[in-house]
Amino acid sequence: MKLLDGKLVADQIKSEIALEVKEQFLDRGIEPPHIAAVLVGEDPASMTYVSAKEKACHEVGFVSSVYRYPANITLEKLLEVIDFLNADDEIHGFIVQVPLPKHIDEQKIIERIDPKKDIDGFHPVNIGKMVLNLPCFLPATPFGIMTLLDRYQIDVDGKNCVVLGRSHTVGTPISILLSRKSKPGNATVTLCHSHTRNIREITSNADILIVAMGKEGYVTADMVKKDAVVVDVGIHRIPSAETKSGFRLKGDVKFDEVSGKCSYITPVPGGIGLMTIVSLLQNTLKAAKKEII
User: pTM score > 0.90 for this model?
Assistant: First the structure.
């Protein structure tokens, strides 16, 4: 078993981005890429993610801004914030951190974002272009998965890939990316979800298994084919008396069981979460260079 080390690859990509920022922006007296995040409320996981994004931005020489609002912000006010960020030429890309409070319609927020600044890749314009294999901002987590597979030279062509979970943020887009006529790509993909029958039978035939079910420890060793490649997208805070923080991070896969059976596996933490952040940096760099129009 070998680890698909998200930290190692993310650090490599950040070094590449930092060099490009220096040569293409700073050395030429051009303002570096500027990424903004909108944070509503005080969800601990969201706050941790935004802080990690800020840290990554500083490491590569980006400008980073965070717009913080209380959980009781109205939809109308939040839409005004989106309009302001859309119109600000100094901000190249931004995200609205989810989940949002229940009274906020997330889809209305996503659709209000200028597709040319949609570095999360969730706007219908970017999703549509992704399906057609046109230049666009890819959804950050699926983008990170594809990058990790590519950097480790995992052969996807013609392979039987199974995706667990059909969310708009991970499962559905990664199933499309894996099946596109591209590299990496050209896989035969099965997308499983809560209504899928005989999931164990399907997963046990997968050459590559992408797990984004949102259920801690869902995938066990008996669900995995020998020498399969396993990508665990899940991340869960589990109470633990053995850590200073009082919790331990675990994924959707029972790592101790499954790791001895597969050829490659992502750790949690240290896997896809870090690749998601670096994908946002890559999308922002594209936005600053006006590669996506």
Answer: yes
